[in-house]
Design goal:
By secondary structure, this protein is α/β, with parallel strands linked by helices. It is built from ten helices and eight strands. The chain has an eight-stranded mixed sheet, with helices on both faces. It is globular and about 50 Å long.
Length: 316
């Protein structure tokens, strides 16, 4: 197989893999990157549990996958990451229905949405993208412990370059709301969560990976005005970033790679992009992970805050 990288697709990354017998749980699986991740893994024999807010959209996604993967092993579960009550109900059903989860892919997210709050009063972006997945992962941990591969993949973004995590005002209660600062705040949180998971769960043989999928045109940007799109494009194409859009199969490739690559075995707590582990870099506009996003003390501080706000309890 040729070297994998920026342009690799999910099927290229998973070429030669046999995922038979593995259960993969994917959030936000009803469209975009989540649906493609589910399809690619089902095509390699995995049993895929597709989670999303809307059962009708999940059913459409299942039908689309089965049109190309006729023997796909798929289950669905309704889940709203903006509600701790919904998360607890969904994970209770999951623990009853499934014996294990080998790979958890925390793929769902919102981007640059108008100012709003989750059902529990969290700012919408950090509430959905981070706190929701923090609570979900805690509730699914018994199933992950029962698995074999035991990997957790958290979808982050190069958007974490926009802002470090703001511990003083994570919910924009005392400052003007900026949708891009909020997005950066939440994507930095995804990486810090990954660092925190690795520090606590590696002893259990569970490893965590943060992923930047690349720039992909999906419904993630549905809240963006023309002005916001122009601002984003100006930002990502400045400083000669060499920016180019990826296709959805290219965008989901790094998630599939982080979930399965043998070379990552036992080496979690890292941020991956273009199917490789990124270097820590506080200057580059074209890649790398900011040092504030992999800072262990910040990860511990966020972990403590997340436990307090969600009530989620991890065993270690």
């Amino acid at each position: 197989m040729s070297a994998i990288g920026w342009s690799s697709t999910t099927d290229e990354v998973l070429a030669g893999e046999d995922l038979s017998g593995l259960t993969v749980f994917v959030t936000g699986a009803n469209s975009g990157l989540g649906q493609e991740t589910a399809r690619a893994m089902a095509a390699k024999g995995a049993h895929v549990v597709m989670a999303g807010r809307d059962q009708a959209k999940l059913d459409e996604a299942v039908a689309a996958i089965r049109a190309s993967v006729t023997d796909a092993q798929l289950d669905t579960i309704t889940l709203d990451l903006g509600s701790l009550e919904s998360i607890r109900a969904a994970t209770s059903r999951a623990r009853q229905r499934f014996a294990k989860i080998d790979i958890l892919i925390n793929n769902a997210g919102v981007m640059a949405c108008p100012f709003g709050h989750t059902a529990d009063g969290f700012e919408m972006q950090v509430g959905t993208n981070h706190f929701g997945h923090f609570a979900l992962t805690a509730e699914l941990l018994p199933l992950i412990e029962a698995g074999t591969n035991k990997r957790i993949v958290n979808l982050s973004s190069r958007g974490h370059h926009f802002a470090p995590f703001n511990f003083d005002d994570p919910h924009f209660e005392r400052r003007a709301y900026d949708p891009w600062e909020s997005y950066g705040n939440s994507k930095t949180a995804n990486i810090l969560f990954t660092v925190g998971l690795e520090a606590r769960l590696a002893v259990l043989g569970i490893h965590a990976y943060a992923v930047h999928p690349g720039g992909i045109q999906t419904n993630l940007g549905r809240h963006m005005t023309e002005e916001m799109v122009a601002t984003l494009m100006a930002r990502v194409t400045s400083k000669d970033t060499g920016f180019a859009w990826k296709t959805i199969p290219q965008g989901a490739a790094t998630s599939c790679w982080a979930a399965t690559a043998p070379e990552l075995e036992g080496k979690g707590g890292v941020y991956c992009e273009d199917c490789h582990v990124a270097e820590v870099d506080d200057e580059s506009a074209t890649g790398g992970v900011r040092s504030y996003a992999v800072n262990p003390s910040y990860a511990d501080q966020l972990w403590k805050l997340s436990e307090e706000l969600t009530g989620a309890a991890y065993p270690v």
